[in-house]
């Protein structure tokens, strides 16, 4: 295998990608706007939730309760009629509708514990999941303060002191942006490497390459190299300009150590993309195959949910996939400031899995593309 030939073929792949505006737009979007929106659009905490009240009591206590729901947790509450509750929830106008019953203040003064109905639009799961707790706490505090005439400072037998490491302010954007970048590396690498081969097959240019004095291994390696260079540069720019720049996410570890893990991950998943392209006969088939492969890789790698919460069989099986080791290494470096002495097992595993995927893809590539010669 000649290095000069591989480089020349890689340059050809880069020119082919440059002439594909759809792919260029996809790369730019995934590594910029997609990361930014994923980090900021869906906060994990309650923020500006639309809420309405049906006030049957119209007392001083009910007005005090309504006035207690303020930003940034809730939008300014609206007062609606009982007949508007179901239509408002059906159209998604409000996430929460609280119904205060008649005689609410009277019954509260008598200690009768009046019922307050809370209607929740559970389709907005990010707000509905935490909103019930906020509403219950605010109602309890306001009623208790009103009845006692002063705000009670509760004392507990144990003083709990919380210290959050690596993310002291508990900013969800710090986690979401990095995890979205990790997912983007895998997705774009598989798409670019697989699309490069399928594009050659559909246009008939693969036969031209096979007629030239180049080996099948050189053709495959050039596609992996071109894909890796593009995604590696896009990842580096995204770290500096999107994550650290636009989102102001602090990176605790060595960015270049993370980029070493990215390079090893690209080697593994680009080989996977080549293998999938040899199985698929067209781009639509490749897209369907991508869904079947990419979703389990992303969901079971530990990027979205901890691996410890998964069945033991799934945990052990996913150790054979590069994403699992890439997520562990990336989180260790970017979040916790881990060095090479900590993440070297994951880097070795990535390299070993990448070599296995490469030789499996090369064998499949020779058996399918070599028959065209």
UniProtKB/TrEMBL annotation:
Residues 132-368 form the ABC transmembrane type-2 domain. It holds the Pfam family ABC2_membrane_3. The keyword Cell membrane applies. The chain crosses the membrane at residues 21-39, 173-198, 219-243, 255-279, 286-303, 343-362. InterPro entries: ABC-2_transporter_component, ABC2_TM, ABC2_TM_bact-type. Keywords: Cell membrane, Membrane, Transmembrane, Transmembrane helix, Transport. Its main location: membrane. PROSITE patterns: ABC_TM2 (PS51012). It is found in: Cell membrane. One of its GO terms (cellular component) is plasma membrane. One of its GO terms (molecular function) is ABC-type transporter activity. It is a multi-pass membrane protein. Belongs to the ABC-2 integral membrane protein family. This is ABC transmembrane type-2 domain-containing protein.
């Amino acid at each position: 295998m000649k290095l000069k030939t591989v480089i020349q073929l890689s340059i050809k792949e880069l020119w082919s990608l440059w002439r594909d505006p759809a792919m260029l737009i996809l790369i730019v979007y995934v590594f910029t706007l997609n990361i930014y929106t994923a980090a900021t659009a869906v906060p994990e905490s309650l923020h500006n939730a639309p809420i309405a009240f049906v006030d049957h009591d119209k007392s001083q206590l009910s007005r005090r309760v309504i006035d207690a729901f303020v930003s940034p947790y809730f939008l300014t509450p609206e007062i609606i009629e009982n007949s508007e509750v179901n239509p408002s929830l059906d159209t998604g106008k409000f996430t929460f509708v609280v119904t205060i019953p008649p005689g609410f203040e009277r019954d509260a003064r008598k200690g009768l514990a009046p019922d307050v109905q809370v209607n929740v639009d559970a389709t907005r799961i990010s707000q509905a999941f935490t909103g019930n707790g906020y509403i219950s706490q605010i109602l309890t505090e306001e009623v208790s303060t009103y009845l006692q005439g002063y705000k009670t400072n509760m004392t507990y037998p144990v003083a709990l002191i919380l210290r959050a490491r690596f993310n002291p302010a508990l900013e969800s954007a710090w986690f979401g942006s990095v995890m979205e970048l990790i997912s983007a590396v895998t997705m774009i690498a598989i798409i670019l490497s697989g699309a490069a081969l399928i594009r050659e097959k559909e246009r008939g240019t693969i036969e031209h390459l096979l007629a030239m004095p180049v080996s099948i291994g050189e053709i495959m390696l050039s596609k992996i190299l071109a894909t890796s260079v593009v995604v590696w540069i896009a990842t580096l720019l995204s770290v500096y300009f999107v994550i650290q720049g636009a989102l102001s996410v602090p990176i605790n570890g060595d960015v270049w150590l993370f980029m070493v893990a990215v390079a090893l991950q690209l080697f593994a998943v680009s080989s996977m993309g080549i293998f999938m392209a040899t199985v698929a006969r067209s781009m639509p088939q490749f897209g369907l195959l991508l869904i079947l492969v990419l979703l389990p890789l992303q969901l079971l790698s530990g990027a979205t949910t901890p691996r410890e919460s998964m069945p033991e069989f799934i945990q052990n099986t996913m150790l054979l996939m590069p994403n699992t080791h890439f997520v562990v290494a990336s989180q260790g470096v970017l979040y916790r400031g881990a060095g090479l002495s900590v993440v070297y097992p994951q880097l070795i595993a990535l390299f070993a899995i990448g070599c296995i995927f490469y030789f499996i893809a090369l064998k499949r590539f020779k058996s399918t593309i070599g028959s065209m010669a």
